[in-house]
Amino acid sequence: MIEAMSAVATQTKNFHIAHLDEIPATPCPCGESKRAFMIPENDVASLHIVTIKKDSETHYHKKMTEIYFVLEGEGTIELDGESYPLKPHTSVMIKPGCRHRAVGEGLKILNVPVPKFDPEDEWFD
């Protein structure tokens, strides 16, 4: 989904501003994601606020690295079949090829995909 350039985001020559509270949530394997900076002229990175669902799906990316930062809630993250605890202020860098999913009640993360998120780079076994 391409971000509208109205109240949701402001674009200028040298910067972009996104109002994540105004961006509609998009379903994703993890739950629901509000995705900022998903504009055609940006290929560097995007920023997502993700509300994790109970039955999040294990997936991986072939090109993209993701950096998760836990904002709220507690749970676990499964990385290549092993579980690790998550709590607020935990950060995880997930490299391409790593099968992953986060699990937890009330878990909300900030996700920074590098390069910018590409829905064609979501893979399932």
Brief summary of the model shown:
This protein has 125 residues and is mainly beta.
What is the CATH first-level class name? Mainly Beta
| The CATH topology | Jelly Rolls
Number of structural units classed as domains = 1
CATH superfamily: Jelly Rolls
Low-pLDDT segments, ≥5 res? 1-7
Q: What is the strand arrangement across the widest sheet?
A: 3-4-5-11-6-9
Helix-strand sequence: EEEEEEEEEEE
Distance between the termini: 24 Å
Strand-residue proportion:
35-45%
CATH architecture: Sandwich
**Count of DSSP-assigned helices:** 0
Principal-axes geometry comes out as globular
Mean pLDDT: 92
Largest sheet descriptor: 6 strands, antiparallel
Helical content band: under 10%
| Helix vs. strand class | mainly beta
The radius of gyration is 14 Å
How would you describe this structure to a colleague?
This protein has strands spanning 9-11, 16-18, 26-28, 31-36, 47-52, 65-72, 75-79, 82-86, 91-94, 100-103, 108-114. With 125 residues, the chain is mainly β. The protein has a single domain (9-118), classed as Jelly Rolls (Sandwich), CATH 2.60.120.
SSE arrangement:
Blueprint: E1 9-11, E2 16-18, E3 26-28, E4 31-36, E5 47-52, E6 65-72, E7 75-79, E8 82-86, E9 91-94, E10 100-103, E11 108-114
Antiparallel strand pairs: 1-2, 3-4, 4-5, 5-11, 6-9, 6-11, 7-8, 7-10
Core attributes:
Jelly Rolls, 6-stranded antiparallel sheet, 125 residues, globular, 3-stranded antiparallel sheet, mainly beta
